[in-house]
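Researcher: I'd like a structural prediction for the single chain below. Treat it as a standalone chain; there are no partners to consider.
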Amino acid sequence: MKTIYIYVLDTLADWELGYVTSELHSRRFFKEEANQVSIKTVSYSKQSIRTMGGMTIVPDYLIDDINVSEASMLLLPGADTWNDPKHEAILVKASELLSVGAAVCAICGATAALANFGVLDNRPHTSNGPGFLEMVCSDYKGQDFYIDQPSVASNNLITAGSTEALLWTKQIIEYLDVFKSNTLESWYNYFNTGDSKYFFELMQTLPANNKN
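Model: Treating it as a single chain, here is the predicted structure.
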């Protein structure tokens, strides 16, 4: 079983997690043989946080409870509060997870936090466009590894800009291997374009529609 740890912090950007949490929790498009996944929220304390949209989240776990193994995945959403020193502990944990081959997935402001902490100095990554990390991160040294693409999956690190939650989610699902490949393509095309033909394609890829 994979455990998906989602770091929650005040001003968390709600929209950046919507696709990935709903699909991993509901399992509605999972392939029959997909591995089990467990989703847990984690933070620096057990106190509730308030998202950018005003929603309240009470963390399930503390940072020290994260299992540092390949069976773990850490999701780091964007927020306006990443500069607070209390978040350094999760950046340490992210580095530890990467070192053992676990996946770390960061979007928007979380990429800046990783960059400022040195995690992106020698790993292919992206963020909110060329020049963004230099603008907000005084200690950023990963320019040679920056890739000007909406979302970048490299080994066990998946990074994206603030407008790319859908593609980021696609790459996370692909990494976890819980959708059939044609299901994932149809799912992405439908939500990316809104074209109903992809919805019907998606339905045809599901196990219930492929039984004699």
